Amino acid sequence: MKIVALFFPKASIGTYLVAMAVAIALPIFAFVALLLLQLEDNQRSTLKRETAQDALALSRIIDRQLQDMATTLRLLSSSPELENGDLASFHERTESALRNNALYVIAVDRTGQQLLNTRQPFGTPLEKTPNIAAVDAALKSGRIEASDVFRGRASGEWVYNVTLPRANDPVAALIITQDARDLGRLVTTQGLAPGWSAAVIDQSGHVVVAAGPAALKPGTPFDPRILPALGFSRGVFEDGTILPHMLLGYAQIPGWSWKTVIWGPVAQASILSTWRFLIIGGVALVLVAVLAAYAVARQVRTTIREIADMAKRMGEGHIVSPVETSVIEANQVAIALSNASFDRSQTEDRLRFVMHELVHRTKNLLTLAQAMMRQLAKQADSVETFQAAVADRLEGLVRSIELLTSEQWGGVPLRRVVDIHLQAFPQSREQIEITGEDFVLKPDAVQNLGLALHELATNSVKYGALSVPQGRVRFDWRDIREEDQPDALLRFTWEERGGPPVTEPSRSGFGTTVIKAHAAAAFRGTVQVDFRPEGLLWVLTAQRATLERE
């Protein structure tokens, strides 16, 4: 209780409502802030993924161009003119075929000496290729390779080569060369966010071609602080010192020594605007919630005071009329209090009636028990016999009282009365056949019929059909109509058969009195008891109105 009092001290309902409004608004505000942080993180993750994918897409475009050049080299390498050593015809055919593609072919020997160059007329004196390292690397690896970007002698432009090594002489390698600016047509920033740039970087870290606002010229070294971090096949580089508020994605061109990179600013304006809106909106939300809680508190406080005044007057014994408030539930409470004030007097009357009824029934039970003990005392030959007889009869009476108590003395179905009393003899339950249409007995009928059934079953278990396994008992009831009886009659029949031979007793005991005289008197009817040799027959005929609850 001390802990509860610490967190919930005594305060007005207005204070608690305002506190509740703040307690609701602040977690919502915090949750929205958490969601915004998560959104910002998701946006950054999405941007990183898209940046890497854009770099990969650019690498595939460049890869297709290099693959096309490699395919062209393979076709040229197997041409008949080259196989026959007819370099003039090869020069003429190749120059004509590639004229519109801005591609040029160079044939070199193993020393790097140019044998032909489609940039120059055939027969023009040529020097060694300026990029002998690329030729040597291709000859050494035995596969097609792309060179670094370099400035060509014949064109004076930044160019790159794709070299195909050959095992034949005199042409040891075929080279396709292209100006870097012609490759630049494939490197664009379309589809990228504003402010983003893209570039292709060769193996030595120089820009082959670039596009965008931060584009570098061909041959310019890319930032050496970034290049060592681009070691994977693709990924994202992020460094607040080198690239503040920027992101860089890269991808290795499959099968080649080049890389593609894209970089640009990370948009922060929308996130900052959202944060400002969240802070301003959150403060406004808390203020509105506090004002609304205060207004509601005033209304609820007035309503509670009116209900409390009703309860006070009701406690003083007055009959109160309901008050009308703006709170529906409070109106329901007021109506309930008003009804309770009316019901209280009825409850008090009902309690007095119940007490009177309890005294009456207690007297009846005590009178019945007293008569039963006097009758048993006359017949008992010992204290033990008397105690056993009294306990047996009281058990039957207790079963009836328990039944009535469970139903609040409002009556019990006949079949349930029969079942409860026969439960005392579970070993003989399957030997008893019960038939008849069920109806609800009056409380007095429950006790009196229960006593008769208990006596009949006890007598049968001791001396009659239920004392042997083959014995059978049929208990039924049905409506009958007699000419001299305008009211409906009920006839109960207990019929035994299959038991030991029956003889009429020489004297009547308490059991006979119960099933005959007591039953007839209790139901204002007639009882027939026939001690037939084949089994006892007990028939009770009484008016239905004396047994059935209305």
Automatic annotation (TrEMBL):
Q: Which Pfam families match?
A: HWE_HK
Q: What EC number(s) has UniProt assigned to this enzyme?
A: 2.7.13.3
Where does the sequence pass through the membrane? 16-39, 277-297
| Keyword terms of this UniProt record | ATP-binding, Kinase, Membrane, Nucleotide-binding, Phosphoprotein, Transferase, Transmembrane, Transmembrane helix
Kinase among keywords: yes
**Molecular functions per Gene Ontology:** ATP binding; protein histidine kinase activity
Q: Tell me what reaction this enzyme catalyses.
A: ATP + protein L-histidine = ADP + protein N-phospho-L-histidine
Q: Which InterPro entries has this protein been placed in?
A: HATPase_C_sf (IPR036890), Sig_transdc_His_kinase_HWE (IPR011102)
| Stored PANTHER family | HISTIDINE KINASE, TWO-COMPONENT SYSTEM SENSOR PROTEIN
Q: What is the protein name stated in its UniProt record?
A: histidine kinase
